[in-house]
């Protein structure tokens, strides 16, 4: 199968909505951005053996590649609309491509985003998706708006994806099947919190980001951008029964603080907006937990029973010396 046939067969959507004026097949795609909107763009690349274990199914790779990009849109409070796909595969295997293509198309349909173009090359397996979305003009979420006194929230529970990854990397770890399945699913299928992000962008959150490298590492980034500090109450971290069951409380907490890959939202809300947040939680059905408070300055400080706890920085950094 030639490159042309491959693209036509697996990566040419059957139909586009009206805002796609020109989709897959030309030198570039053309989209209509609504007049009162602004374009939001992000790109994320996932590499076999780095972002997902060797042997991950084509469907899981496709899901993850798009989900992490949708999560970036969620973190901006944007409505994702279009994406391009740069696919680097070692060979053109029909079965793999077909599984990849249909999983990608399923998730795209679920979130109403459209594949408008891409590139297909031969090489070590890696997938790069560039996503584009829209926000109302002058109205988007950033990492930089947190204010002293704001409450810090996270969506969902943290650490489960890191637990899942541990199970994949260490098949000898004993785990009850239903718990193991749950944790693996959380690693392979993170839920992009798009609707939550959009609601938070409705003058609710002062700052937001998605957690890809671990809570502490990412909170430090948010604090640096907002020029503030933070206090985290470890007892408030949302507990995961499956994670605790398999790994014990101490390690579950460590995964929650330092494990990456959860793609939950981390955001700050002024106390007086709590009633609106309660409504959003009800409406979206996404549980959100208050875990601490923004301080004027200083680092990110963790507390247990009001006692400061020191936690070594172990968030993921591709270019850190020890990697
Ligand atoms: P060019 O020579 O202009 O780079 P290509 O031959 O690489 O074009 O691609 C032809 C068309 O197919 C373009 O519209 C491109 O966007 C699209 N395309 C290529 N690979 C993919 C892919 N993996 N997914 C979606 N569209 C793709
Ligand atoms: Mg061209």
What features would you describe in this structure?
It is a single chain. With 323 residues, this protein is of the alpha+beta class. Helices cover 35% and strands 25% of the residues. A seven-stranded mixed β-sheet has the order 8-10-7-11-9-12-13. Strands 3-6-4-5 form a four-stranded mixed β-sheet. A two-stranded antiparallel ribbon has the order 1-2. Residues 7, 11, 24-27, 85, 87, 115, 117-120 line the site of adenosine-5'-diphosphate.
Question: Which descriptors would you attach to this protein?
Answer:
35% helix, binds magnesium ion, 2 domains, binds adenosine-5'-diphosphate, alpha+beta, 13 strands, single chain, 4-stranded mixed β-sheet, 323 residues, 25% strand
Task: Annotate the secondary structure layout.
Elements: H1 3-10, E1 20-22, E2 30-31, E3 37-47, H2 58-76, E4 79-89, H3 94-110, E5 114-122, E6 126-136, E7 151-155, H4 160-169, H5 177-188, H6 194-200, E8 207-210, H7 215-226, E9 229-233, H8 241-247, H9 249-258, E10 265-269, H10 274-284, E11 288-295, E12 300-304, E13 307-309
Parallel strand pairs: 4-5, 9-12
Antiparallel strand pairs: 1-2, 3-6, 4-6, 7-10, 7-11, 8-10, 9-11, 12-13
Helix pairs in contact: 2-3, 2-6, 4-5, 5-8, 6-10, 8-9
Adenosine-5'-diphosphate binds near residues 7, 24 and 120.
């Amino acid at each position: 199968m030639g490159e042309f046939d491959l693209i036509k067969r697996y990566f040419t959507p059957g139909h586009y909505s009206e805002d796609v004026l020109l989709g897959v097949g030309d030198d570039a795609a053309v989209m209509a951005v609504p007049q009162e909107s602004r374009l939001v763009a992000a790109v994320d690349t996932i590499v076999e053996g780095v972002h997902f274990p060797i042997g991950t199914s084509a469907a899981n790779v496709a899901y993850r590649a798009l989900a992490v990009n949708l999560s970036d849109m969620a973190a901006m409070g944007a409505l994702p609309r279009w994406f391009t796909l740069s696919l680097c595969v070692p060979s053109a295997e029909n079965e793999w491509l077909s599984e990849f293509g249909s999983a990608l198309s399923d998730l795209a349909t679920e979130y109403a985003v459209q594949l408008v173009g891409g590139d297909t090359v031969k090489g070590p397996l890696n997938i790069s998706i560039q996503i584009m979305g829209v926000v109302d003009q002058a109205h988007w979420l950033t990492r930089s708006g947190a204010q002293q006194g704001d409450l810090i929230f996270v969506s969902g529970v943290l650490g489960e994806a890191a637990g899942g990854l541990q199970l994949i990397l260490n098949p000898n770890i004993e785990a009850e099947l239903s718990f193991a399945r749950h944790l693996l699913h959380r690693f392979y299928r993170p839920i992009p919190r798009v609707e939550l992000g959009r609601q938070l962008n409705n003058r609710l959150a002062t700052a937001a980001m998605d957690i890809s490298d671990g809570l502490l590492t990412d909170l430090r980034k948010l604090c640096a951008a907002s020029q503030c500090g933070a206090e985290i109450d470890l007892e408030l971290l949302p507990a995961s029964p499956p994670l605790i069951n398999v790994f014990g409380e101490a390690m579950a907490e460590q995964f929650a603080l330092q494990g990456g890959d959860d793609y939950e939202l981390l955001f700050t809300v002024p106390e007086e907006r709590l009633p609106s947040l309660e409504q959003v939680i009800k409406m979206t059905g996404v549980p959100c937990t208050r875990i601490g408070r923004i301080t004027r300055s200083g680092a990110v400080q963790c507390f247990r029973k009001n006692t400061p706890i020191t936690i070594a920085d172990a968030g993921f950094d591709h270019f850190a010396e020890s990697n």
